Amino acid sequence: MTDSPAHFLDDDGQTPERDEARLPEDKTRSEKERLIRCRACSLGIARASAVFVAPGCDGPKRVFANPSGRVFEVLTVRQADGLRLAGESTPEFTWFAGYAWRAALCQKCVNHVGWAFSAARTMVSPDSFFALITSEIHED
Ligand SMILES: [Zn+2]
Question: How many domains are contained in the chain?
């Protein structure tokens, strides 16, 4: 009898590694990010993705009055560029508890577009943000 050794060898076939060149994910998720611009001169001052809900608020937009009774609707953003901050920060009459503010002007046309808020106490977060006057800005 011929011994027919059963070749139960595992077909140790290594699955050929697929070595397809991986294209860098060209996900252009944020490629065409919308910008918030100065209404007067269209300078880009914030990314639409920087809009956030500031501490103590229900939404990113809020209406406030200043001590002289002027009413502003503001949009809060985490970060902004192209702004010139004017004067010293003050916590007086602040709209956001724990934050001091100063005026933020468009760097290009000096339009008053909002305010920069910075933490006046250590336990508030974030450290700083901006409130932009909705009537002084527009979005792409
Ligand atoms: Zn401007």
Answer: 1
> What's 40's domain CATH number?
2.170.150.20
Closest CA to 99 of 84, 73, 119: 119
Quick check: helix, strand or coil at residue 136? helix
Report CA(124)–ligand 1 centroid distance (Å).
Answer: 30
Please give the distance, rounded to the nearest whole angstrom, from the Cα atom of residue 134 to the centre of ligand 1: 13
pLDDT tens for residues 77-94? 999 999 999 999 999 999
State the distance from the centre of ligand 1 to the C-alpha of 28, rounded, in angstroms: 28
41 C-alpha to center of ligand 1: Å? 4
Does any domain span residue 113?
yes
Q: Residue 134: helix, strand or coil by DSSP?
A: helix
Residues with CB under 5 A from ligand 1 (ion): 38, 40-41, 43, 106, 108-109, 111
Residue 64 in contact with residue 56, Cβ under 8 Å? no
**Inside any domain, residue 3:** no
- Note down the domain range covering 73: 35-139
Residue 57 within any structural domain of the chain: yes
Question: Which pTM does this prediction carry?
Answer: 0.77
For residues 120-124, give the mean pLDDT. Answer: 88
